[in-house]
């Protein structure tokens, strides 16, 4: 006999588990299905983000940053540290521990909010009386019926054509997080978020890292001035990034992998490496969903087609996160999950794509919200720009990290903030002020007039806002 629910969420990543919790908070009898397994075969909700994405990568970035500080920067603070070594196995064990804490936290939240959790793969069977029949294929097969279905099945790493991931030599983000020893030579294809973050981790630990990027510009989605500042910092660190390359044959060798490519000048080259991380984007995950059984419409990329409210082609079937249009970001998925649960309850869920922040957790960190200078120029928008360097910020000097700047872009007539772009220390935290400001349609003058604590990195935000009106106080 099937179990009946008001809302069934397929997928327990950021979009899915948050949607389930919010639906339960709104009084719906809610189930969440997720198949991710931990090393012991038990449930590991949290999706790509928690298991092989945002959370473990930040754990490794933190460990590797500590190692680099001990080796290269402690001396300037008067700290003598000699013969510093990295125990990679222990670093990975800590990362796994952080992941488990997050997995267990989600299971606790399900219990706290009375969400019924089913461990297995969820798929459509048919439309049924009272909604849709969903099969859970796990240790014990279950049949559920839900009035409303929220699909939150996430995305998978995109493979190079003809070069499948083996997670030993050719690695996706998953394998990149499980490398058991520091490779002497590490190659990456793709200089996006994953490429730069994973490249940074292994470079800090001693790997010779080369990133091959097909686009002629570095971080094309980032404000050009910010991207140039970041590139300067990465070059200085020894992270080699080759732009405008065309990758040819990729072959596994006895030593690892060889990559034939043509550089930006048209010269044929070969790169030999112990490991290759492929980070050329992600594709929506609808494998095994059995969408065709109920006529759920997919687009050419395999993403579920939704409208502005995340409604699919089927009544009472919704989809959120990486499996639909829009940026593949965990926090975007969470906002859509909450919004859909509230729409099911007859409320007005809110997701503003124009104020979704982006972050790259390298050192320096890169964060931004809103439009870039090049986008404003392309759109013919008249704007004013203001920048302030961390070099002139007292807290940054005390930290010993003065790389980068804060940049404000504001409407030339109304002074409304159109974009804020940061490269430098703790950019991931500083960007939140800009998100709040833009959500409330604040002006640059508003931020310039607000008192910021001294000394703090946030003063650079205030000063950049002042710079829009050409009246910085400390530069």
From TrEMBL:
| Primary site of residence | cytoplasm
Q: What is its EC number?
A: 1.8.1.4
Entry note: cofactor:
Binds 1 FAD per subunit.
A single Pfam family it belongs to is: Pyr_redox_2
Gene3D superfamilies linked to this entry: 3.30.390.30, FAD/NAD(P)-binding domain (3.50.50.60)
Active-site residues, record numbering mapped to chain:
454
If you read the UniProt record, what top EC class would you report for this enzyme, in one word?
A: oxidoreductase
Q: Where does NAD(+) bind?
A: 190-197, 213, 281
Gene Ontology terms: cellular component: cytoplasm
Alphabetized, the UniProt keywords read: Cytoplasm, FAD, Flavoprotein, NAD, Nucleotide-binding, Oxidoreductase, Redox-active center
One annotated GO molecular function: dihydrolipoyl dehydrogenase (NADH) activity
Q: Which reaction does it catalyse?
A: N(6)-[(R)-dihydrolipoyl]-L-lysyl-[protein] + NAD(+) = N(6)-[(R)-lipoyl]-L-lysyl-[protein] + NADH + H(+)
Q: Which residues form the FAD/NAD(P)-binding domain?
A: 5-337
* Every Pyridine nucleotide-disulphide oxidoreductase dimerisation domain range: 356-465
Q: Quick one: which residues bind FAD?
A: 58, 122, 153-155, 322, 328-331
Localization, UniProt: Cytoplasm
Cofactors (names)? FAD
Q: List the disulfide bonds.
A: 49-54
SUPFAM superfamilies the UniProt entry points to: FAD/NAD(P)-binding domain, FAD/NAD-linked reductases, dimerisation (C-terminal) domain
**Biological process, per Gene Ontology:** 2-oxoglutarate metabolic process
Q: Which family does it belong to?
A: Belongs to the class-I pyridine nucleotide-disulfide oxidoreductase family.
Please share what else the UniProt entry notes about this protein: The active site is a redox-active disulfide bond.
Protein name as it appears in the record? Dihydrolipoyl dehydrogenase
